[in-house]
Amino acid sequence: MSPPVVFRPQAERKLLDAEQWYEQRGPGLGRRFRAAVDQTVSSVSTRPLSFATVDATKRRALVSGFHTVCTSQ
User: Residue 5: what pLDDT?
Assistant: First the structure.
């Protein structure tokens, strides 16, 4: 069983800022961004070893359709 994906407070703030930034660019875009992030987090949670290694304790998952990165430890 994989450990849960946990957002640190600073990462959570950045995620909310990014969601607001995308929403300002177009109605509904922030919600689409958040849904894409949630889908990526779900994939990281269920298949963590399928993502690229950053270093010995981190892996990286790209959020499809957006210019952001979700890194797991």
Answer: 79
